[in-house]
């Protein structure tokens, strides 16, 4: 990749690359874009290949003067009024397209998204190249957008499809352009940006805001604009948005049980999150500052070895929904796959670990707790659901354990894993990490829906580190004969395999000594009363 200066020579070199049908990363006032000749379908394909971008995600074309709008689209009166007020600038308009626009640009739609950037380098490059430039954000698809040439280099320095980047310094806005559809019965805001809904309503009072701005786009619905996909702008580590009072957010993060945590917080909150990597991204009430620094903060977090990233997110209300905060909120929702946790409520939730030897009746206890409003998370069931994804790692340890379809043969795995203590440790090294990652994901998703009480069921909760995320641990015990019969019936195994499984587990004393409470599962009719007795004790603590 050539790194070009933003002077005349750099622009001329970039023009030559574009004329060859190559892709050049360019600065704009919003974010850096991967640019190619928008009238050349083959050149545009290189953008998709470089980014790993889905083919059903349309691109925006960039022009250098308003007069060019009618060359590529069919503008209406509103489009010209908006162009007069906001162009050049970070506003994209979706209009019916002309036939000169390739399907690669429009993703098969009969519309095209057009904007005129307000960056002198971008404008000069478009003008000298003599063609509109298709230019989505210059990042790997789904990852945080780039607001500096360094970000582009991080993503594409070794990418064969990107020929050059023009270093135009840091982007001014920090979030992508506002996208407005003018093709429906009423103008509709599809993606918020620096041109806010309030500003647009000065020209179009009947502006609608699409539900997809703050909600997930249904799987079967076509994306009419860039940035509408479910997960977008996201670091590699699981990312969640946290809202509420700072002290409650700090308490939630502290108790979430992750060893490697990064918190993207508001300026002034840095000392509130001990033992975490901290990245402030602006004052909580300065929404333009948050927008400008957002993607840089997400990229910094992505360079840290994380198990989880938490992003402090401002509260949004009817008054703020029409301003720049909507753009910040929209990007963060997608970075976190729409997982937003209200820490003011979450810190009052209750997480119970239900453990004990196989066949003791942990699932039965959890059924009673489900009737009391708890979300039952069965770690055995999780392992059965995700075990096939762990097959490569398991076969490195145990050899061939899969069938002709690549599915794990659980009986073979069980025989090998439970044949020695060392083998069991190696199985657990793979299983525990995968299971706890899924447990965390399930809890986050439910908390995002306003559900905060959980019962995590598993025989190896202590070994897996689940105690770190549980408020209390309850051990369930039962006599050996009852446990043996339950395991044989439940798992379809014989006495020998059941005994092998028992031999690989901790003793009953281990469970009872390490738990906060113990329930003897010897009478099903008395079980609800025993559980209620424990919950009453917990409520007094």
Query: Strand sequence of the main sheet, in spatial order?
Result: 1-8-2-3-7-4-6-5-9-10-11
What's the β-strand tally? 21
Strand share of the residues?
Answer: 15-25%
Low-confidence stretches: none
- Whole-angstrom Rg: 28 Å
- State the CATH superfamily name of the largest domain: DHBP synthase
**CATH fold category name of the largest domain:** DHBP synthase
How confident is the prediction overall: mean pLDDT?
Answer: 91
Structural classification: alpha/beta
Question: How far do the termini sit from each other?
Answer: 62 Å
Shape: elongated
What's the CATH first level of the largest domain? Alpha Beta
The number of distinct helices, counting runs of at least 4 residues, comes to: 22
Q: Total domains, how many? A: 3
Taking the sheet with the most strands, its summary is: 11 strands, mixed
Q: Share of helix among residues? A: 25-40%
- The name of the CATH architecture of the largest domain is Alpha-Beta Complex
């Amino acid at each position: 990749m050539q790194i070009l200066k933003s002077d005349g020579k750099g622009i001329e070199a970039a023009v030559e690359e574009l004329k060859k049908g190559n892709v050049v990363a360019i600065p704009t006032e919003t974010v850096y874009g991967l640019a190619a000749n928008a009238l050349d379908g083959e050149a545009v394909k290189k953008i998709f290949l470089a980014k790993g971008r889905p083919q059903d995600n349309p691109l925006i074309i960039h022009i250098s003067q308003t007069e060019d709008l009618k060359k590529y689209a069919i503008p209406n009166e509103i489009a010209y009024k908006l162009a007069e007020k906001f162009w050049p600038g970070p506003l994209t308009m979706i209009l019916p397209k002309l036939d000169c626009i390739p399907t690669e640009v429009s993703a098969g739609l009969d519309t095209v998204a057009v904007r005129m950037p307000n960056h002198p380098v971008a404008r000069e490059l478009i003008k000298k190249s003599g063609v509109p430039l298709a230019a989505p954000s210059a990042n790997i698809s789904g990852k945080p957008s780039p607001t500096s040439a360094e970000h582009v280099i991080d993503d594409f320095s070794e990418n064969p499809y990107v020929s050059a980047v023009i270093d135009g310094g840091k982007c001014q806005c920090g979030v992508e352009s506002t996208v407005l559809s003018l093709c429906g019965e009423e103008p509709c805001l599809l993606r918020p940006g620096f041109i806010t809904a309030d500003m647009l309503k000065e020209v179009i009072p009947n502006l609608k805001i699409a539900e997809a701005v703050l909600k997930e786009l249904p799987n079967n619905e076509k994306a009419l604009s860039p940035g509408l996909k479910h997960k977008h702008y996201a670091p590699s580590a699981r990312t969640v948005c946290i809202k509420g009072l700072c002290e409650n957010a700090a308490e939630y993060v502290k108790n979430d049980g992750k060893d490697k945590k990064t918190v993207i917080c508001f300026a002034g909150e840095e000392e509130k999150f001990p033992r975490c990597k901290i990245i402030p991204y602006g004052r909580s009430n300065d929404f333009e500052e948050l927008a400008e620094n957002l993607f840089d903060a997400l990229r910094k977090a992505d360079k840290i070895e994380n198990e989880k990233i938490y992003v402090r997110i401002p509260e949004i209300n009817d008054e703020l929904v029409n301003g720049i905060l909507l753009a910040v909120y929209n990007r963060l929702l997608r970075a976190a796959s729409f997982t937003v946790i209200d820490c003011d409520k979450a810190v009052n939730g209750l997480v119970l670990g239900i453990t004990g030897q196989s066949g003791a009746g942990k699932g039965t206890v959890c059924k009673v707790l489900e009737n009391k409003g708890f979300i039952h998370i069965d770690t055995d069931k999780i392992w059965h659901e995700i075990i096939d994804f762990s097959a490569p790692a398991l076969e490195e340890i145990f050899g061939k354990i899969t069938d002709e379809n690549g599915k794990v043969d659980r009986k073979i795995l069980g025989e090998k894993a439970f044949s020695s203590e060392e083998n069991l440790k190696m199985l657990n090294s793979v299983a525990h990490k995968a299971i706890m990652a899924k447990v965390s994901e399930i809890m986050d998703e439910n908390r995002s829906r306003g559900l905060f009480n959980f019962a995590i069921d598993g025989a190896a909760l202590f070994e897996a580190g689940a105690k770190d995320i549980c408020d209390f641990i309850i051990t369930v015990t039962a006599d050996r004969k009852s446990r043996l019969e339950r395991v044989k019936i439940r798992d379809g195994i014989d006495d020998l395999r059941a005994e092998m499984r028992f031999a690989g587990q901790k003793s009953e004393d281990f469970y009872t000594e390490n738990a906060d409470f113990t329930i003897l599962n010897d009478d099903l009719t008395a079980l609800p009363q025993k559980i209620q007795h424990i919950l009453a004790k917990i409520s007094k603590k």
